[in-house]
C-alpha cells in the first residue's frame, strides 16, 4: 500500500534540481559524436549520428511517444504518419540516443529551404529528466556544425520555461518572444 508521501521525494528532488539550474546554469559544450554516458537514472546511453538502420527503432520510439508530450503537432500520432514525417525530417543532420539497443531520443536539423535549419529534440517520456536531452543537444549541434550547418532556429511554446533555459544554455537567443511560441536561434 502506498502512502501520499511516496511520490513526494522525487517531486522535491526535481524541484531542487530546477532551482539550482536557474541560479547556476551550466553552459552546454558542443561534443563530437559518438559519446556514451550514464544518465541520471544509471542507464548507459550512447549518443551518435543517425544511421538508416535506426529507422525502425526511431519509428517505434515515436509510435510509443506520449501524445501529451507532442510539440506543435509533432510527432504525428499514427505509425504511417510517423513514417511519412520521418522521411521528410531526416534530410538534414540527425543524432540519436540509444539505450539497451533502442532509440530513446532524437535531435534533428531540418533544412528550411533558406540555408538555415530548424532544430527539434525529442526524448521518450520514460527517459526524460535524466540528462539525455542535454547530451543530444551537445552532440547534435557539433554534428550539425561538422556537416556544414551554420544557422539553427527553433520554436518553443512560451510556457515551456525549462526547455527555453536548456536552449539558452546551448547558446540560443530568443529572436521573437511574442505569441504562443518563442523563436530562438544561434549560429554554429
UniProtKB/TrEMBL annotation:
<dbReference type="InterPro" id="IPR016181">
    <property type="entry name" value="Acyl_CoA_acyltransferase"/>
</dbReference>
<dbReference type="Pfam" id="PF00583">
    <property type="entry name" value="Acetyltransf_1"/>
</dbReference>
<dbReference type="GO" id="GO:0016747">
    <property type="term" value="F:acyltransferase activity, transferring groups other than amino-acyl groups"/>
</dbReference>
<dbReference type="InterPro" id="IPR050276">
    <property type="entry name" value="MshD_Acetyltransferase"/>
</dbReference>
<dbReference type="InterPro" id="IPR000182">
    <property type="entry name" value="GNAT_dom"/>
</dbReference>
<feature type="domain" description="N-acetyltransferase">
    <location>
        <begin position="45"/>
        <end position="188"/>
    </location>
</feature>
<protein>
    <submittedName>
        <fullName>GNAT family N-acetyltransferase</fullName>
    </submittedName>
</protein>
Amino acid at each position: 500500500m502506498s502512502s501520499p508521501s511516496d511520490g513526494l521525494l522525487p517531486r522535491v528532488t526535481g524541484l531542487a534540481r530546477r532551482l539550482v539550474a536557474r541560479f547556476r546554469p551550466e553552459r552546454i559544450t558542443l561534443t563530437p559524436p559518438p559519446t556514451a554516458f550514464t544518465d541520471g537514472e544509471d542507464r548507459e546511453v550512447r549518443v551518435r549520428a543517425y544511421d538508416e538502420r535506426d529507422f525502425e527503432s526511431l519509428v517505434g520510439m515515436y509510435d510509443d511517444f506520449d501524445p501529451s508530450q507532442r510539440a506543435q503537432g509533432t510527432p504525428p500520432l499514427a505509425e504511417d504518419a510517423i513514417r511519412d514525417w520521418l522521411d521528410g525530417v531526416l534530410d538534414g543532420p540527425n543524432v540519436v540516443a540509444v539505450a539497451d539497443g533502442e532509440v530513446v531520443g532524437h535531435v534533428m536539423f531540418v533544412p528550411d529551404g533558406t540555408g538555415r535549419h530548424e532544430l527539434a529534440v525529442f526524448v521518450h517520456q520514460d527517459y526524460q529528466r535524466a540528462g539525455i536531452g542535454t547530451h543530444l543537444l551537445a552532440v547534435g549541434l557539433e554534428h550539425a556544425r561538422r556537416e556544414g550547418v551554420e544557422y539553427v532556429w527553433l520554436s518553443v511554446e512560451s510556457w515551456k520555461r525549462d526547455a527555453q533555459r536548456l536552449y539558452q544554455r546551448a547558446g540560443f537567443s530568443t529572436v521573437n518572444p511574442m505569441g504562443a511560441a518563442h523563436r530562438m536561434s544561434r549560429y554554429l
